[in-house]
Amino acid sequence: MLIDQIDIERIPDHIAIIMDGNGRWAKRQGKPRVFGHKSGVKSVREVTEGCAELGIKYLTLYAFSTENWNRPKLEVTALMALLVETIKTEVSVLNKNNIRLETIGNSDALPAKSRRALAKAIEDTQDNDGLCLILALNYSAKWDIMQAVKTIADKVERKELTAKKLTESDFESALSTKNIPDPELLIRTSGESRISNFLLWEIAYSELFFTPVLWPDFRKENLFEAILDFQSRERRFGKTSEQI
Fold this sequence. Notes:
Elements: E1 14-18, H1 22-28, H2 33-54, E2 58-65, H3 73-96, E3 100-104, H4 112-125, E4 132-139, H5 141-157, H6 168-172, E5 185-188, E6 207-210, H7 220-231
Parallel strand pairs: 1-2, 1-5, 2-4, 3-4, 5-6
């Protein structure tokens, strides 16, 4: 089994995933796109449990981008309903596996029913100290960077900070990911090789893994394959091999 080949001493603390391919998967089944999103819930469960089994500390899933509002209204409405339904169903599973739920993104713009379900799930899992599952909802990296710039600009106006003294740490503390370490591994499914406005600041030195597997078909073994690929790489962070 692939899991037996993984070096537990070198697993990434944080994995981020762009869950792509639900629509194409549904089309191949002759079903509407929403069917693909519903089928993708099983993949979320599999990957989350796989990360928990390995002792990974953070898993961030790109669940809904700010650009996704441009999709057909029927699909967006169905996605929001699926979000509420899934959260209510999965809270017991999260608690069983000692998983804490968090979110990043502009959640204020989500429908009220979605916000309430999220808030309750976050409250119900807040005492868990295992894997932290982070849902990126109504998220875009450009939005996050812009809101960070505005926060810093306000501090400069109030003379709490000067431009000359601004540091990377100051900037990072204004991002919605301020309490989350940068992901060491970013996975994208469905064969697309792009980042799609996801964690642009945070993935500066992440290892990227692109797989042709469509998200509804992604299972623990696919996760373990990505981790093994990660462990085969030499991470230099600008240094030479000899310096590591």
